[in-house]
Amino acid sequence: MKKLLMLMAVALLPLTALADSDNKYGGENRGKPLLPKQINAKWQEECGACHIAYAPGLLPADSWRKLMSGLDQHFGTDAALATNENRAITEFLVKNESNRWRAKSAPLRITESAWFKAKHGTHEIAPDVWKRASIKSPANCQACHLEAAQADFNEHRIKIPK
Amino acid sequence: MKKTGIISAIALSAIFTFSAPLMAAENTILESYRAAARQENPAFKDFSSTRGQAFHTAKSGDLSCASCHTENIKAHGKHATTGKDILPLAPSANPDRFADAAKVEKWFKRNCNDVLKRACTAQEKGDFIAYTLSVK
Lengths: 162, 136
Fold this sequence. Notes:
The complex is a heterodimer of chains A (162) and B (136).
Chain A: H1 2-23, H2 41-47, H3 61-68, H4 83-95, H5 114-119
Helix pairs in contact in A: 3-4
Chain B: H1 2-19, H2 28-40, H3 49-57, H4 66-69, E1 77-78, E2 85-86, H5 101-116, H6 122-134
Antiparallel strand pairs in B: 1-2
């Protein structure tokens, strides 16, 4: 009996592993790692000027392509780049996209993805918390994640501001 | 002749390096906007830091330059939408400012578009830089 259970567990292992990486959050899962070892300096400078430079592993390649082709009207602001800079940054983002995203969807916002919503549901964060002046927007990752700019979202380095 | 030429060149460069921080016209980027302002308007006289300061705080819709850069340009600013920290705009508090022409032009284009929904004129840009340089 014990042996049988063990066998079943072993047989199930690959299945659970698959479920974890492929089907979690309806396929809208962030990548691992979020940041590659080689960082593109232009990306860091340009995409880190108005907010933290969001790590490429937070979204799939199609999201990055869409976003990078509309920078002149980027969430109500003008973030346009020279053609050659745009190409280099797009390449960096696409190459380091989320490696666990299986859905066809490609949201423009990280905060619209299923993994984000699951991790930031009302059980973790009450709706009125988002409206605090110190937070303002769910896109303001570093308000709560102290090391967000380094793509470190570990739960031990979260402090929700008053 | 040759010798005096070299000597006066050295003397001149010495004057320029020593007097540069004192003169209002020290900033090469400001000088290029001056040339552009003359092109734009034959009646152009000079840039005005007073006008630049008024421009900095003038609201157009909900936004002014001060919305993100704060009224005190020696202090840190804060992005009006994202809340991100922005380093001071005054060169006296942040020597990296107005040192890279391409960067300056890129942000004038973006921020003027965001605030005024149009490009800024060379006069406005020059007034603005003159203002930032005047804050000691």
